[in-house]
Amino acid sequence: MSMERLDVLKALADRRTDEIVVTTMTATLQWPQVSSHPLDFDFLAFGMGHAADFALGLALARPERKVIVLKGDGGLLMSLGSLVTLGRYAPPNLLVLLLENRSYEMTGGQSFATEVDFPALASGAGLKNVERIDDLTRFETELSRLLTKPGPHFVVLPVTNSASLPPVSHTDHTSRVTKLRQALDLVP
Amino acid sequence: MSGASAARTVALLKTLGFTDAVSIPDGESRLLYQALVDDEEMEVYLPTREGEGIAIAAGLWVGGRKPVIVLQNTGLMEAGDALRGCGIGPSIPLLLLVGWRGYPGAMTGALPIDSAYPYTEPLLDAWGLAHRRLMSDDDLGVIAEMAEAAEKRSKPAAVVYGYGFTP
Question: CB of B56 within 8 Å of any CB in chain A?
């Protein structure tokens, strides 16, 4: 089973309050369709495969605030060792939502190894709260727990996408950082 | 030949306001790594690869901390995309302490020359990063100089150490 990605993003946007949400790759194209929030952070072009690493740093720096990262399975394969680091430092305020489509969608949908077991990789790396949710109704139900209970949580979400993607159009890197730091009251 | 004192380096980093260290130690920085771990005020994170470490450090900085990154020149080469995307592009003033693998051998004329040796400073120049050499305690002032350069230029800056840290 899999879920329509835009439905997953909408479910999260409808329930999210004051959490930081870090997005990357195709999620950066669709997240703005469902969310416009000062704590949204577009990580596209910040470093291939490193969105969860950046989110880990944010979560460690801001323990009072939940940090959610929406990243793809292809990106995870680019920095697979980061699972070990996530498992070791394990900030309870981090929620990793792994959008599993088993392809590099951003560059045309090239598929990679289809048998990769992402929950097993995460568990094997030392992460404790690992689960796979493949039903939208259940995801909507579980979100209240995932957004409030201590983690870190690592959730694999098998998704497909039938919506046309908007073109890549982003603000420059520096202004994205400045806006997030302003939203965190770190700079005027 | 031996390099700068790890204890003095940690004390200086704290004086400069650094709160966290993200490090994959090399042979030359193992005593610095241990001194950072032993310090009760510094938070130390050991990632699995250097690009990952730079992204973690960027997240720490965006979240309000002040991290220093300690890595070998070989790791810096691996981490090029992360340095571009998480440091140079978004104007994040990360301070890098870079181990210069190949330097001691090159200085003594030992052959073969480590292929990591000749690319280190030209690579930093290519990225447009300020950098200075740290070879002994006499050079410790370059850490403050590069920390200030990073802040003023809003981009990473590097201190390149050529010899192993002493206790």
Answer: yes
Each residue of B28-84: pLDDT tens digit? 999 999 999 999 999 999 999 999 999 999 999 999 999 999 999 999 999 999 999
Q: How far apart are CA B71 and CA A148, in angstroms?
A: 36
Joined tokens for residue A148: 């409030």
> Is residue A160 assigned to a domain?
yes
DSSP β-ladder status, B95-99 and B43-45: unpaired
pLDDT at res. A35: 97
Domains and CATH numbers, chain B: 6-161 (3.40.50.970)
Give the domain extent around A63.
3-183
CA–CA–CA angle A72, A48, A20 (5° rounding):
60
Mutate to test the interface with B, among A50, A83, A96, A182 (most CBs of B within 10 A): A50
Please state the pTM of the whole predicted model: 0.97
Q: Is A119 on the interface with B (CB under 8 A)?
A: no
Q: What is the mean pLDDT of chain B?
A: 97
Determine contact: A177 vs chain B, CB below 8 A.
yes
| Three-state secondary structure call for residue A185 | coil
| CATH classification at residue A134 | 3.40.50.970
Residue A51 belongs to some domain of the structure: yes
Decide if B47 and A48 are in contact by the 8 Å CB cutoff.
no
Q: So what's the ipTM on this one?
A: 0.97
A188 lies in some domain: no
| Average pLDDT of the residues in A142-147 | 98
